[in-house]
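C-alpha cells as discussed.
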C-alpha cells in the first residue's frame, strides 16, 4: 500500500489537510495545482465518472485556495477585480466570476463567496490571485485586508450528495439553494457549505476552516456516505468537459478574453462601477473577436485519456485553432472536445480536421455543453 511519504517533490509543494486520508483511501497519483498536490488517480477514470453520475464522490479540492478580502472597502475592491456586476450580490450568495487584467485577459475564473457585508472569499482556479489582489490594493487607496485564510474545501458531488448532506447536517440543509452558502459546524468543526462544484452534477463544497481537522472531517463524510454509495474520487475530466466547464491554463489563460468563450453575461460594461479591463473589454466587444470556443465531436477510436498537448485544428489544409480539452465520454459514446478556433470557421455542423496524438481525424463543430446544457441537474 502507498504511504503518504511516497509522494513528493519537497516542501515547496504543499499537502492538503486531506492528503493522508486520500492516500489511505486509494489515491495513486497527484497533480500540482496552486502549488499544492491534488489527487488525480483513484484507479479507472471511467469508473470515477460513473461513481459521480450514479451515486456520489468525495474530492479533495483544498487546492482551491481562498483569497479573503475584508475591510470597509471590501465590496468596492472586489467589484474592481471583476467585470461581473456584483451590486445585487447578497450576503450568503456565491457567483461565478472572471478576474481580468487591463487588456481584458482572464487571470482566473473563480467562485466568489460573500460571507458578510465586508467579507469575501475568492475560491480560486489555478493561478496566483492572492498576489494580484495584494498588488492591486497597494495603490488603490482602499481600506482592505487581503490574505489566504486557513480554509480547505472538499467537493461532495453526485445525485446522492443531498442525501449524504442530510445524514450529516439534518433536513434543513435541503433548503440551501444553488449558488448559496451557509455557515455550519459538524461536531465542533467550523465549516462553510455551498451548493457549488466543478462537476455539473448536484453537489456541495464543504470549506474546512481548521486545517488540523482535515482527517477527521474526511472520515466523517465517508462514513455518512457509505450507505449511499459514496466513493473517494477526483474531479472528473469527462464530466466537466461534457458540461463545458473551463479548466484554467487549458481552455483559457491570460491571453483569452470573456467574449471568445461566449461569457458575455459575465461582463457588464454598462454598470457605473469601474473594473480592471473595462476599456479593453468595451473595445473588444465593439470590434468583435477573432477566435471563438466551440465544441467538437472527434471521430476515431475512444481516446485513452485526456489530451496532454494542444492538438491543431485544420480546415482545408490551414491551421484554424487548437483543441484545448478532449476526452472520451462513455455516456455519449464518442470523443468530445473543447477547442478555440478562428471565428469565421466557428459554425455548427462544420467539419474540420483534428491532428490527434495518433494522427489526423475528422471532427464536427457542435453545441456545448455536450450534456444537460441548461444545468438542470446541478440546479435542481
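Sequence:
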Amino acid at each position: 500500500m502507498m504511504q503518504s511519504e511516497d509522494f513528493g517533490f519537497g516542501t515547496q509543494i504543499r499537502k492538503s489537510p486531506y492528503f493522508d486520508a486520500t492516500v489511505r483511501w486509494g489515491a495513486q497519483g497527484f497533480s500540482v495545482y496552486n502549488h499544492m498536490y491534488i489527487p488525480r488517480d483513484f484507479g479507472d477514470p471511467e469508473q470515477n465518472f460513473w461513481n459521480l453520475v450514479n451515486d456520489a464522490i468525495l474530492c479533495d479540492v483544498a487546492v482551491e485556495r481562498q483569497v479573503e478580502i475584508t475591510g470597509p472597502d471590501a465590496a468596492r475592491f472586489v467589484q474592481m477585480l471583476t467585470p461581473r456586476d456584483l451590486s445585487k450580490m447578497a450576503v450568503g450568495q456565491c457567483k461565478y466570476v472572471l478576474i481580468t487584467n487591463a487588456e481584458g485577459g482572464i487571470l482566473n475564473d473563480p467562485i466568489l463567496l460573500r460571507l458578510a457585508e465586508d467579507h469575501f472569499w475568492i475560491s480560486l482556479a489555478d493561478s496566483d490571485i492572492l498576489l494580484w489582489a495584494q498588488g492591486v490594493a497597494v495603490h488603490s487607496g482602499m481600506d482592505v485586508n487581503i490574505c489566504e485564510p486557513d480554509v480547505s474545501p472538499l467537493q461532495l458531488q453526485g445525485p446522492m450528495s443531498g442525501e449524504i448532506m442530510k445524514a450529516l447536517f439534518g433536513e434543513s440543509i435541503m433548503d440551501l439553494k444553488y449558488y448559496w452558502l451557509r455557515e455550519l459546524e459538524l461536531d465542533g468543526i467550523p465549516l462553510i457549505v455551498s451548493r457549488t462544484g466543478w462537476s455539473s452534477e448536484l453537489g456541495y463544497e464543504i470549506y474546512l476552516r481548521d486545517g488540523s481537522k482535515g482527517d477527521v472531517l474526511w472520515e466523517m463524510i465517508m462514513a455518512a456516505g457509505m450507505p449511499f454509495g459514496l466513493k473517494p474520487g477526483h474531479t472528473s475530466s469527462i464530466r466537466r468537459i461534457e458540461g463545458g466547464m473551463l479548466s484554467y491554463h487549458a481552455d483559457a489563460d491570460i491571453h483569452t478574453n470573456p467574449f471568445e468563450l461566449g461569457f458575455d453575461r459575465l461582463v457588464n460594461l454598462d454598470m457605473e462601477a469601474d473594473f480592471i479591463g473595462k476599456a479593453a473589454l468595451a473595445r473588444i466587444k465593439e470590434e468583435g473577436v477573432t477566435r471563438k470556443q466551440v465544441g467538437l465531436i472527434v471521430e476515431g477510436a475512444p481516446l485513452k485519456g485526456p489530451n496532454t498537448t494542444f492538438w491543431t485544428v485544420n480546415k482545408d489544409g490551414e491551421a484554424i485553432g487548437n483543441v484545448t480539452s478532449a476526452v472520451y465520454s462513455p455516456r455519449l459514446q464518442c470523443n468530445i472536445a473543447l477547442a478555440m478556433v478562428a471565428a469565421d470557421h466557428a459554425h455548427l455542423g462544420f467539419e474540420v480536421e483534428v491532428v490527434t496524438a495518433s494522427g489526423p481525424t475528422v471532427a464536427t463543430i457542435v453545441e456545448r455543453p455536450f450534456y444537460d446544457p441548461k444545468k438542470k441537474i446541478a440546479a435542481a
